[in-house]
Design goal:
Elements: H1 3-23, E1 29-30, H2 32-40, E2 52-56, H3 57-72, E3 76-79, E4 92-96, E5 99-102, E6 112-121, H4 125-142, H5 153-165, H6 168-182, E7 192-194, E8 205-207, E9 214-219, E10 222-227, H7 230-238, E11 257-260
Parallel strand pairs: 2-6
Antiparallel strand pairs: 1-2, 3-4, 4-6, 5-11, 6-7, 7-8, 9-10
Length: 262
């Protein structure tokens, strides 16, 4: 698939998810580089290669519960650690069923978007760090193959052996514990919230109010939901977010090939 074909497919997936969320009163917002792109570029960041949404935890769980309805009326598919044993990411991937993406270190998926849950978090920075570490240790215990992305051969071997020797019943228990840990702090009542154990670490945790009010935003000429407090969210995450990064940093985060399946 060409870049234009990929982006058109991503937009179509986004639109189907948006329409379904509106019809079912599910809260969601563009997030990460997709939210930044909507504000700074009115669409895709030119060098970006993925799409990110997030939902408050109650809405995320409800979306997963209702997803079979969306899948039945569209060609969308979903992959996460509940329905695929080689997925250990804390989020879901939603993609067009007639596409496939080949990316080293990830279970097979297609062209679409990532969907993250927003969970409640502890009140203090110190407790947030401890909590993230606790969740991270639980993730390590699962040792799913998706994490065999280490360049170091010994680390690769460690992950592979741990995965192979862990019984399926134990893996399922660890997944359940991993999921429950994320829900320890109630989103609706917590002062802080965010994407736990995210790549931006503690910077992903901020006042929960940022994730509770939404507005319409334009993205590539289509209307989606964004955060009312997008300025506060983007500033917390990126700093001076309207400033373009140096040219040598304007590169995609992922390296993959996408195909349309006949």
């Amino acid at each position: 698939m060409t870049q234009s074909e990929i982006r058109e497919c991503q937009l179509n997936v986004m639109t189907l998810v948006h329409d379904f969320c509106i019809a079912n009163n599910i809260r969601y917002s563009l997030c990460g580089g997709t939210m930044l792109g909507a504000v700074r570029h009115k669409g895709f960041i030119p060098w970006d290669d993925d799409v990110d949404f997030f939902m408050p935890r109650p809405d995320y769980d409800r979306f997963l519960e209702l997803f079979p309805q969306l899948s039945a009326q569209s060609n969308l598919r979903i992959i996460n650690y509940w329905n695929h044993e080689e997925v250990a990411q804390k989020y879901s991937k939603i993609f067009a069923g007639n596409t496939i993406v080949i990316e080293s270190g990830f279970a097979d998926n297609g062209v679409g978007m990532d969907l993250f849950p927003i969970d409640g978090a502890p009140d203090t920075l110190e407790d947030i760090k401890k909590f993230n570490k606790e969740i991270g240790n639980c993730r390590m215990g699962c040792a799913k193959k998706v994490y065999i992305r280490q360049k170091d051969c010994l680390r690769k071997l460690k992950w592979y052996v741990l995965y192979k020797i862990t019984p399926k019943s134990v893996k399922k228990r660890i997944i359940k514990e991993f999921d429950l840990m994320h829900k320890r702090y109630n989103f609706e009542t917590s002062y802080n919230a965010g994407i736990l154990i995210d790549r931006y670490k503690e910077k992903s945790i901020m006042p929960a109010i940022y994730f509770k009010e939404f507005i319409d935003v334009s993205f590539e000429g289509r209307i989606f939901k964004g955060l009312k407090y997008y300025h506060e969210y983007l500033t917390h995450t990126y700093g001076d977010y309207m400033q373009l990064p140096p040219e040598d940093k304007r590169k995609p985060d992922h390296t993959y090939k996408s195909y349309i399946v006949d």
